[in-house]
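notes to self, project folder thing:

trying the whole complex as one job this time. last attempt i did each chain seperately and stitching them together was a nightmare. four parts in total, labels are on each line so i dont mix them up again. if this works i'll redo the older ones the same way
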Amino acid sequence: MNSFGKRLIMTTFGESHGKAIGCVLDGVPAGLDIDETFIQNELDRRRPGKSKFATARKELDEVQILSGVFEGRSTGTPIAMVIFNKDQKSRDYSNIKDIFRPGHADFTYWHKYGIRDYRGGGRSSARETAARVAAGAVAKLLLKEFGIEVEAGVCEVAGIEAKEFDFDYAKTSEIFALDPYVETLQKEAILKAKEAHDSVGGAVLVRATNLPVGLGEPIYYKLDAVLAEALMSINAAKAVDIGLGREASRLYGSQNNDQITKEGFISNNAGGILGGISNGEDVIAKVWFKPTPSIFQKQRSIDVNGNEVEVELKGRHDPFVAARGSVVAEAMMALVIADMLLLNATSQLSHLKKVYL
Amino acid sequence: MNSFGKRLIMTTFGESHGKAIGCVLDGVPAGLDIDETFIQNELDRRRPGKSKFATARKELDEVQILSGVFEGRSTGTPIAMVIFNKDQKSRDYSNIKDIFRPGHADFTYWHKYGIRDYRGGGRSSARETAARVAAGAVAKLLLKEFGIEVEAGVCEVAGIEAKEFDFDYAKTSEIFALDPYVETLQKEAILKAKEAHDSVGGAVLVRATNLPVGLGEPIYYKLDAVLAEALMSINAAKAVDIGLGREASRLYGSQNNDQITKEGFISNNAGGILGGISNGEDVIAKVWFKPTPSIFQKQRSIDVNGNEVEVELKGRHDPFVAARGSVVAEAMMALVIADMLLLNATSQLSHLKKVYL
Amino acid sequence: MNSFGKRLIMTTFGESHGKAIGCVLDGVPAGLDIDETFIQNELDRRRPGKSKFATARKELDEVQILSGVFEGRSTGTPIAMVIFNKDQKSRDYSNIKDIFRPGHADFTYWHKYGIRDYRGGGRSSARETAARVAAGAVAKLLLKEFGIEVEAGVCEVAGIEAKEFDFDYAKTSEIFALDPYVETLQKEAILKAKEAHDSVGGAVLVRATNLPVGLGEPIYYKLDAVLAEALMSINAAKAVDIGLGREASRLYGSQNNDQITKEGFISNNAGGILGGISNGEDVIAKVWFKPTPSIFQKQRSIDVNGNEVEVELKGRHDPFVAARGSVVAEAMMALVIADMLLLNATSQLSHLKKVYL
Amino acid sequence: MNSFGKRLIMTTFGESHGKAIGCVLDGVPAGLDIDETFIQNELDRRRPGKSKFATARKELDEVQILSGVFEGRSTGTPIAMVIFNKDQKSRDYSNIKDIFRPGHADFTYWHKYGIRDYRGGGRSSARETAARVAAGAVAKLLLKEFGIEVEAGVCEVAGIEAKEFDFDYAKTSEIFALDPYVETLQKEAILKAKEAHDSVGGAVLVRATNLPVGLGEPIYYKLDAVLAEALMSINAAKAVDIGLGREASRLYGSQNNDQITKEGFISNNAGGILGGISNGEDVIAKVWFKPTPSIFQKQRSIDVNGNEVEVELKGRHDPFVAARGSVVAEAMMALVIADMLLLNATSQLSHLKKVYL
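result (full assembly):
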């Protein structure tokens, strides 16, 4: 259950403080230029330890491609990528060995598996998302061949909403903020929480541009449904909107419907998806992250024996996870769209005839 | 791509105005009492034509079980269920044969497949959800064996929010309203929109109670992620929250974390899921529906040849889809949880030993 | 676990003496002409009750298409087909209700599920293969668009081997014999066994012609491996050969290797598959069927309570199942190749560019 | 398409002369003791370079576990294992860079993908099977907990058949011969072929003992069908028999049926499988390997430009692949049975109740 996708299938493995994390990406068409620098750059964007807004854990996150690439191009065989863990201060975690940190997966992993790798959250750590970013980078390379681009940025921090959405600006922002005008306020909110040994939540806007019409496989592999799954699978995600999302439910049909002219859709309230299929407009989704559960205040909890304890965490944690989450959201959307691109290639007999006849 | 689930796999088929719709449910453990009356009752709850708040289309939605049940019990083989379409006024749709209705899947199906069954939306019609309700009813029967119950109701109509959540009341309400105190206002909003030939949106709260700890398969079959997919796959759904959802992103970590005592979790902001795995609390999700796209006002659109047209729909449509959507949301959550129950049965070696040794 | 295929996915349902059997075929590209007469003809070829060489059970096997076809063409949505059971003499089976027939699945179904639909073997009956033939017929229609043809015939009965392989002749033979010169002997062997209340086994040769190079997905969806699975899943199948099969293992490498010239491969010992991928030559497989387990002699067995019993079957059974098995083998090979055709459409970036750019 | 299994899912990656080969094994229940020495020993059994009967390529095949194991036990998360390639004499292959070796996958990979990693066969090399053996070793550890054992050995070399099947003896034989009395003849046949720069084929018998009744998921995940797929997916495999296999087709039903007494089945012609489900008897399968295609004689072929060439291979190759193939066959059968064990855990409601209630 550690695989994602139907035709472009990512399988990830690895624990926060194990030997390595990594992924196997199966289904990449042969003949794609695999730009390793680009992949590494994507990982560097997600990498912790770069600013005071994120965890101080310093991982170089150097990715190695083990297979599937020959002379710079994909061969059609699975692309395995591995990142060996370096900065694994496992000692930091010895004190929480038998304790369930509130808001964390400790409690559920323990009960589900009867055992847990407690070091840094083990498999449940957001560190796993580095593997997704590596796979997502390959998906982006594939999408680029078709002119499709996926971008993301932070649109809300602690309730402070972006009014403008400048995806280029986000690329340069330490917190991937989409709106330069509220970025300062947003940063202050993060630092204020950090100083109070607390954390804040936020939201990320993800956008794909230049999609062909037709991506998405009704009824149970709809583009919007799979995007929802993909984004909700990111650590700390608690809500997903497609297009106007929740806001659409407060409009009248006559307001919300995207009417059509010769030039295309007049509006894009739908977020580029109708009936689970892309309509050619920008695909827009929003994912909402809870505040980081790792805070440095005393909290009530229990240990594995059911005894009540007071937890006070040590270690290094992001006071705001949505920033790095935006890089992961991009990766997930890229993977979803690339998968849908492959799936849709056989939707019509005429497509197949172009390939074979 | 018309299948859902990994161990309990529902495959649906059928078009709104074709011969029949139906489903095949594979993976139901043998020995389950299959109460056909219960299944039919579930379908009756979703069935249109019962009140002025829903479409006047009258379908008896009589379900026939074709296989997988012998002498009242499941045999472990696939359970096929079929509902023959009766009230198919296909003529109603001849006028939109070549036209793309705004807000509908007409445009995307046409482009994706190069052909569409235009009668009543064909496969993209919400009629398909009757098949889900039939399958969901079987999932509910399975869950009942373990004391797990899934319930849903409407918590918001046209921005009018429920303050109380009375799931028993919802069962008796024509619009499945959770809050009797706002129900009248909510109904008025629907009727007002209907009279204006318009439609409204809303939201549904779904809840599962009495789950064991451990359901959900990280990393890519997380309970919350799959719920998000399941709920977003319902027609007209545009957003999904788990637990506090979006609201959680506006709290501090110290507020949002569910602390733990000997008696259990102090709060349930997480909606019963940590790290993608059920924690034993109620699983809570919310799904937001856009206003019905089928409205009876003039709208701009184009036809299949790219000519601009004015669309004015006829036919019978719900002015508010979330009510019947709540029955579907229940079915989808039941299917997800039942699937997770089966999957989790092999999470520990000790579980397997209970089965085999 | 009642589904087969990855992109062209057949799900079957139904029991021998239940209400109906049928299938849902998902993934058929839109725009394919669906010739219902052809589908019915395929079913008629498999249909029992036509000669003294097969069971006297008379089923009309009238197939109804419930979905996925509009105005004679596939729409891209799942094609559901159903065959209602007519001639269900359930009384024939009351005497074996609690008994395990030797060579049958009675024993294993009972133990696996704790319950069994004993009427005519229930789900384990070869009657299920009618659903495969319906789905296979659609696969054949798809393959025909690419000039690919799948044919089969009986090449051995009770050890009497065909020396010639005339697939056209097989179409006219009551036992689908490939070799007219040994057909009489083969028929005599069947009738002799039948008279002795016994049964015989045999083998079927299946061939696909005119495949493109490239079908088959290494490493775990190889064309030969999936063919082996497909053919071995047919009732009573006990062995599968690809190309020379077992005989190849008794040659030297220098004899067995298919050398290549400008004109193509000099020989086809490989059966058209190298490394799990089609090489453009005819794909050849052989499937070996055990003698029908249903014989009308006294046999030792036990009942569900563990008591020893003497079984003496009544009812109607084929004395030789491979004949009708050859129709099923064709269907299975057609399904496999069609699935591979769809999968291979995304093997190269250049293929995708043909579809999208 | 590089994954195998439904609940115990092995994904392999890597090329013969790339950086590494490896696998990710997902679905291993938590709490299993992972004996790394045992896994390494299994790899050592398959490892080349140990005798004159196998290729001289010397790989240490040192396996590293990267994830999924904590303090010696499985945690329920994916177990990634990697083997870095050491002895990669890529130069050996430069002369066949543009040439299709007869009997190899060069031709088909080239055409399927438009590119190939020609070094040592790339992905199509039998080197990939080392990853299977690693995964299979974990499956064996799981099966051992339930008393199930899987063993294999060579039963035929160049037409020389074993008459006795001594699985313990096979463990000590350089060619994994099952029958000590014909082993010398079999070895001579291999060496004689080797001296003639040729190769021979053979067959392997695989056996699983002590299975519970009930493993196998009809209709399309039958134990025998999936075994056939698993064994046929091994490099150079061309035929698979279950139980008596082909021989059964030459018996009468009255001879072939395994009659039953209180003490169990009187015979085991079926190879332990009825209706696709294990019946508690030994599961028996045979897999037939073609002679190694890599021979050191002149052969006719073409190059990537279609020019006719004479190929004369250099490099190091097994003159007889079935010996090492027997280790792989064991691994594949272990994986299949372990997967079926997990799947069957939910076949009955009563099983689930044992886990949850």
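what i see at first glance: The radius of gyration of chain A is 21 Å.
need to look closer tmrw
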